[in-house]
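User: Quick one: structure for sequence A, then sequence B.

Assistant: Sequence A:
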Amino acid sequence: MKKLVLFMLALPLVIFIYATCTLYILHKSRGLEFSYENGGTDLSFISSDLGWSAEENMMEGKNYITILNDFESYKLNQNDSSIMLFRTKPKKKFWKWAWWFDNYDSPKWKVPYLTPEELKQLRKEAVKQK
């Protein structure tokens, strides 16, 4: 009877420790912040004229909708409707942990991806125009 009581007391502690360690390993294996409210990985965005950029951060309340509103305000302030929004973080490979937890149906993943090479090219063009 004594062993059963000890087992019943220890079992929740063991489960808690296991779950905590598993979540910690998942978090560290990605190297990125993750939030279910955010639909997965926090993404960063940049405008096509390189004058505006933002990054999702649920701790500061910056989700995709907030960023989209900020970007539209920026376009209005610049009085240029041709400015486009680009995503600067790629989708993960399917063998990475993060791939299995991201919601790729979310609108934020539909924003065109700007590769590092394309970003360098945009920066070179921006310097030439100045």
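Sequence B:
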Amino acid sequence: MQGPPPFQRPAGIEAAASIQANKRADGKRSRAMQHRHLFKPRTQFGRAAIESCGQGMVLAMRGAVIFVLAFLLFLFVTLAYRELPPGRAIYGLLGVPEIEEPVLGIPATTLVVAVFNGVVYGFIVWLVFDILGKVLKSEGKRKESRQEQR
């Protein structure tokens, strides 16, 4: 009686594994590794673009964290104070009847209104954060350029 057949990777995974190893089976570098110098920034502008892209990613992640924190804050505030606008107004515009059946011990309508408020206020807080970040960044660049001119 034979055991199960040995595990074989699908062809796409084999190709990815060979690219990760950066070497072919015969020991030569892959075509991508032979031409990697083409992807290196040769100018200060190229380096600055790559660095700013990294900084942009950090700001985007901060923005996501800000949104989630604001969403959760306003979700819980709405659960405590059920008439906080605009969630109730949005729910009314949908024309859905109010449902008092509890979901996790909270009336379903209140939970939906809390989610609406969390999204709306989370977006507003994120937008303010993003605009302030860009304004402060541009002011910082202006100050640096003024100092360099002196």
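The chain has five helices and two strands. Residues 62-149 form one domain.

User: Thanks, that's what I needed.
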